[in-house]
Specification:
It is globular, with a radius of gyration of 17 Å. The N terminus is likely disordered. 13% of the residues lie in helices and 32% in strands. It contains 2 helices and 15 strands. The longest helix is centred in the C-terminal third of the chain and has 15 residues. By secondary structure, the chain is α+β, with helices and mostly antiparallel strands. Strand 14 and strand 15 form a beta hairpin. Strands 3-8-9-10-13-14-15 form a 7-stranded antiparallel beta sheet, with helices on one face. It has a single domain, classed as 4-Layer Sandwich (Penicillin V Acylase, Chain A).
Length: 199
């Protein structure tokens, strides 16, 4: 019998556009994770909150970034190795914006700012949920954060230390964003991009 932990596993995301459902329900999103079966990922829930001018957030890499005046209510799957700010593998916010990431193999994982602090993919997931009302806005927030702070996972377990491809969804749209260091690219998915399936 082949043990599951010997199989090559990977994260996968699935999104369903409104056109793929009988009632026009969109925003259906699912993600699995290629994480160890011994890794706990408790669900963290944070209500909408107001913040004082000049506040900063310290991310897992010791990177400090400005806080926004209002963070939206959200819930996310928080890996037990995430600390301080506590980012997510995947999550959803009060507006139905969802985000998660998959491994994106690249030859340039450390070819950006060397070992200067950058944003980890888990922190980026949470920051996007806190700051976005739509998937389109989430892509803008995500790519702005990546441009400013880079994307890495230096404090992650070794098998999670990779560049990321993010799926971003809301009740009507779905996007994919690929990130390497400070560089990124994105694509919006519609029925033509999904061969008419909407999935």
């Amino acid at each position: 019998m082949l043990a599951l932990h010997h199989l090559a596993l990977a994260c996968d995301s699935l999104a369903v556009l409104p056109s793929a459902t009988a009632d026009g329900l969109g925003g259906l999103y699912a993600k699995n994770a290629d994480r160890s079966r011994n890794e706990a990922q408790p669900i963290a829930v944070h209500p909408r909150a107001n913040h004082k001018k000049g506040e900063e957030i310290t991310l897992d890499t010791d990177l400090k970034i400005p806080q926004v005046p209002v963070t939206y209510g959200h819930a996310g799957s928080r890996p037990n190795w995430a600390n301080r700010y506590g980012g997510y593998s995947e999550g959803v916010n009060e507006f139905g914006v969802g985000i998660g990431n998959e491994m994106f193999p690249s030859y340039s994982i450390k070819g950006d700012d060397g070992w200067k602090p950058q944003a980890e993919f888990t922190d980026l997931d949470r920051l996007v949920l806190e700051r976005s009302r739509t998937a389109a806005e989430a892509v803008s927030v995500l790519t702005s954060l990546i441009s400013a702070y880079g994307q890495t996972c230096r404090t992650c377990p070794e098998k999670a230390n990779y560049n990321s491809m993010f799926m971003v969804v809301d009740p009507i749209e779905a996007y994919s964003v690929m990130a390497v260091g400070h560089e990124w690219g994105w694509k919006r998915f519609d029925d033509a991009a999904t061969n008419g399936t909407g999935i």
